[in-house]
Automatic annotation (TrEMBL), chains A, B:
NCBIfam families in UniProt: aman2_put
Subunit structure: Monomer.
Boundaries of every Glycosyl hydrolase family domain copy: 294-759
Signal sequence annotation: 1-18
Residues in Glycosyl hydrolase family 92 N-terminal domain copies: 27-287
Superkingdom in the source lineage: Bacteria
Name under which the protein is recorded: Glycoside hydrolase family 92 protein
Gene Ontology CC, one term: cytosol
InterPro entries according to UniProt: 6-hairpin_glycosidase_sf, GH-type_carb-bd, GH92_a_mannosidase_put, GH92_N, Glyco_hydro_92, PNGase
Pfam families (alphabetical): Glyco_hydro_92, Glyco_hydro_92N
Amino acid sequence: MKLKLTLAFLLSGHLLMAQTSEKLIPYVHPIIGTQRMGHTFPGATAPFGMVQLSPETDTISYELNGKYNPDVYKYCAGYQYDDQTIVGFSHTHFSGTGHSDLGDFLIMPTVGPLKLNPGTAQQAHSGYRSAFSHTNEISEANYYKVKLDDYNIIAELTTSTRVGFHQYSFPKTDSAHIILDMESGIYNYPDKNVWTYIHVINDTLITGYRQTNGWARNRTLYFAISFSKPFTSHGFRNDSKKEVYRGFWGKLNQSKDFPEISGQQIKAWFNFNTSEGEKIKVKMALSPVSMDGAIQNMQAEIPGWNFEQVKADGQQQWETALHKIEISSKSEAEKENFYTAMYHALINPTVYTDVDGRYKGLDQNIHKADGFTNYTTFSLWDTYRALHPLFNIIEPKRNADMVRSMLAHYEQSPEHMLPVWSNSANENWCMSGYHAVAVIADAIAKEHLNGYDPQKALEACVVTARHRNYEGIGDYMDKGYVPDEKSGVSVSNTLEYAYDDWSIAQAAQKLGRDDIYKEFSKRALNYANVYDPASGFMRPRLNDGSFRKNFDPLSTNNQGFIEGNAWNYTLFVPHDPAALMNLMGGESRFVRYLDSLFTMELPDKYFAETEDITRDGIIGNYVHGNEPSHHVAYLYNWTHQPWKTQARVRMILKKMYHPTPDGLGGNDDCGQMSAWYIFSTLGFYPVAPGNNIYQIGSPAIDGATLHLENGQTFKITVKNQSDKNVYVQRLTLNGKDLPGYQLSYDQIKNGGELVFYMGGKPKK
Amino acid sequence: MKLKLTLAFLLSGHLLMAQTSEKLIPYVHPIIGTQRMGHTFPGATAPFGMVQLSPETDTISYELNGKYNPDVYKYCAGYQYDDQTIVGFSHTHFSGTGHSDLGDFLIMPTVGPLKLNPGTAQQAHSGYRSAFSHTNEISEANYYKVKLDDYNIIAELTTSTRVGFHQYSFPKTDSAHIILDMESGIYNYPDKNVWTYIHVINDTLITGYRQTNGWARNRTLYFAISFSKPFTSHGFRNDSKKEVYRGFWGKLNQSKDFPEISGQQIKAWFNFNTSEGEKIKVKMALSPVSMDGAIQNMQAEIPGWNFEQVKADGQQQWETALHKIEISSKSEAEKENFYTAMYHALINPTVYTDVDGRYKGLDQNIHKADGFTNYTTFSLWDTYRALHPLFNIIEPKRNADMVRSMLAHYEQSPEHMLPVWSNSANENWCMSGYHAVAVIADAIAKEHLNGYDPQKALEACVVTARHRNYEGIGDYMDKGYVPDEKSGVSVSNTLEYAYDDWSIAQAAQKLGRDDIYKEFSKRALNYANVYDPASGFMRPRLNDGSFRKNFDPLSTNNQGFIEGNAWNYTLFVPHDPAALMNLMGGESRFVRYLDSLFTMELPDKYFAETEDITRDGIIGNYVHGNEPSHHVAYLYNWTHQPWKTQARVRMILKKMYHPTPDGLGGNDDCGQMSAWYIFSTLGFYPVAPGNNIYQIGSPAIDGATLHLENGQTFKITVKNQSDKNVYVQRLTLNGKDLPGYQLSYDQIKNGGELVFYMGGKPKK
């Protein structure tokens, strides 16, 4: 044991040296995906940072005349590349989501007459927003710079994990303002602000909090602001509706005299005199626990005022993270796609603990994380597929902490369930399934058990999967499927539960719990109960066992599926494609089905229904912009035509990812789309997280070196690869032929070399 | 030193034995003051308890059709004796205030069809409220019992310091309900509830919180409920206005399935089956810190289910507190008045720390009280006069903790000011002056310095008194008075500041700070700057130094005074009545002025203006129902006619206090009215807190024994006292004649005997 450790250390020492010194940040373009549907943000953040400090180009209200405002969807991440104006810089953003929240603590520097409303894009000068142009904009990992044309202010942003750092270069003026707009937010709507508070402690230190009832119902985020220079004066505005005691005895004139203000809708501003080019720096520390916690986070992470140092420290974190996979490619575009995908893959989930380990739990009490970092922002329906499996290769310790965070969630959740979509100590129940179990099963399969008891983790999975009154699980357990009457997405639920149950069974088997293995292996077969042999599709099934009469397998509207149609979802048996193939009538029909999925022409009326993606997000009827089909291209590996997997994967990589603002074919979904890209570019993909098998596809690079936390390196060499040579001719692992178009995690974790020999013709 | 201590212990041991074993609780009638203007509550509380568990007979909205609803004023304490129905039992109440708040966590037991609205007094059966009658009502110190006629339920209430304990005896039924109405509150108005939360942890344990924007702007109170018997089922109702994600994905059906609910307006109910007479017990623990804190408070204070024991423990606390003053009187009514006054004097301020010492501070952060109990509910404009001076005799350690709480308030307050009227970690700025300084000065004068640095305390007083932008202090410092233009209550402010400044000067002198002594002794003379020799009254003065033209010394409307007219306020120079007498033209005119104050007939139109009091609250033009004149009856002691003080005091005692529900002539004001009664009944009164002198009045009893915390006893013997014999003929202290109608604190604290020789004729 000792010897092993020592060896590992030696190796790791050796490998650190082995890492190339090439800077990878130049290949990262956070701007990718900021146009149209990507829903990424261009601002600054550290890997998995609590702070995502980024410009808002608009803050559209969720409601317009009391109705849902479809435009709000564009602003899930606060920024749209085509916009001409910037409203300000806020400190929290989701990366690539379809629903949204956050946008906390908008800060905007201005000069001249004080304006307190953002104004509109149509009438920019009606408010404090400023015009900007992309020519004056720099967007890097952990660094963002832009010129605010209306004010001749250069704004620069960087961060540490919990602190946002603004550096504003002002012109000479006696009327510089820094506005703190607590009314602004992403996916805002009337009364989303529950309560807000600002406390001016002195002329350089401000604290406060924002409590919202949004996608997270019971959310409070605390802040502490520090200015590098004392303000000369400050002011408050309270736009809240009447409060009985607001002006009690006329003593509470909150706009002056008093150093604190609270209310539902409040703003503050701070005034400065500046010389030409004078830099005013602003640190904004966040805490999920308290204002004291925010001050503590600031003191711990950024005690001083050296902007360049903070930027360099954060970028060094990125370099270290990016270097875990070093690729070689003749294509700059390839490197830009790849390292930007790496960047987008390492933003969510986000740290949700103060530096002292305290965090708010699902029970709305304050807890202390004992020996781990607590995370939030779990978009699990998306990320269980490829993102967490990727972490199990390049960030296993972090992923184990994410598992511990999910177990803490389970312990603290009033429903005693693992997270579905958790955000800031709240559960929003978004999407279907209970895929936290797949993330846990995958970690157990790969033996990343740092600091948690796998038996307890298994119990959490089982209790969650037996939660009878959640989303038709009771019927699912009794009948083997979720009846159409019980849920609008009964088929998706049945299929996803079946896969999740299989992953539980795998973990149970590994942990020697034969009872659980049997129970959930049986449940894992339930996918078959919603397969309709007559139509050849998975199809909504009624209580009485019959299939729903009117049924359109091309439609995604009320057909029993979520973010997908029957054509795509019918292939959702990732844990047993072979059995699915038989169910669907054998190999030849299965291949025909896959072929037509990619080649058919989807009529426009059906495209119109398809959520979250652009026209480019579809290939035939294959929807890459949504997740349910992310494994589909790899299913040819279960047939005798694996070369079709290789061709399809390369086609998807080419068609769906570009190193441009509009380069993402759909929402990045907290890194899942990027993780798919990373795996597929490397040449393999985890079709069924929960086991150790990856399916071989077609690498789009000339080679890669994976630096593992255990000190091992796994080398991928790709010979004769080109846009034409997408077909695998031969595969060797450590010099020996690798059969079966499969790779196992064990073969990676022990290090070694995988060599792809590529050619222009399918190897039949 | 050692010897001294030992002696003290011996004495104290001796004195404990010396205390009579007579039960005093039978003389306590919490119901006194619950009719009309007393604003006391009849429910259960421990001395200074965090919980005041009491019935609401109505919860009137602060607003009616968008306008102030004058009826809300009657319900400052939630209960009006004349009402016929009880809405439920809530856990927090102010005692005797004029503005109000609280009424948190209303619980109502019912049987039969579930009703979730309280209904109205006019249509009782339209809601869950129940009829009751005083014949089925018992109201004792820390015990309340009533029969809910509509449901045939016997409700009993008792408390510990932080936990309310309900005991409900149900009839036989399969439809018993316990309703938790989080929408209910005192001085409620739309949007006063900012956010509320209920978490059903299991079938006997519930936690949650209520966040309000009321008289306290930023207030959150947390709770934990424990049932003695598991409920069979529960339900939620969310009456909040639309929330975008309330029913997200249809999974958040908060009325069932889910064990938690949050929103602005929510209710919960818990269902039980009961046998005839079955008792269901409910413990409700409070915390200003967290739900965990509430659970911890419950476990520490009431781990079990023995209602009788909890009641007995709380009543023993009351017996110990009441026994600090043992009186002898031939009159039962006298004893009822006196011990009910003692009871009302020992309710506010209230404990505001969890059992672990944690509390929320004015800065909205959580703090830990280091070696003291933190208190809130400081109605200082009222209570600096007699209540805190009373504590300095019978509760000096507690009073020192109150001083420490005020210093913590100062440290944490964004305004860096001592409390004006503080409530639940918030400042509401109610009334005039900065009388915390008088409370601190009085504690320093009496050398009750337990655990705080008097120099730091003095600094807090000085900083507060120099807060230029608070309520005209800047002008007051510059001009020597608050100009009429600057404040609607400029004269009250000037007079009260001058007195407060004098008290600061006394503390400074005692602490050897000659600089501060000089500065504030000079400020203490400012009262003279608002005296108008022409009219002979204190009078609003303009910026230019002239007095306001149109001026009505009888009116309390916009005359520059608060809760008083010029006639009364002109006498507000408690720190130097002799100088005031000269200012007003010498003794004979001063005596005439005092005589006419008590004897003149105040025209009804002026009475109509007088706040907070009943017709009986006025004697001539002397207003006892409000505080500014509480010292006035004692001012004859500065003339050669002290017997008039003796006669007036006895007349006020007789006229203003009765052992009946309508027995209080005005709001009890957190115990100030009661403290006046206690001092005056004992025969002396602190006209100027901040020095050690009490003015002799006329004792209304035959004797009293004061048990001091230092182990000493001070005995008062009154010979030949009766309703006729109200005049002091002779006074001896420890056998020697006591001259000058004055008694000092030092003469009390060292123990001894004061003998009054009374007679039917003034001693001229």
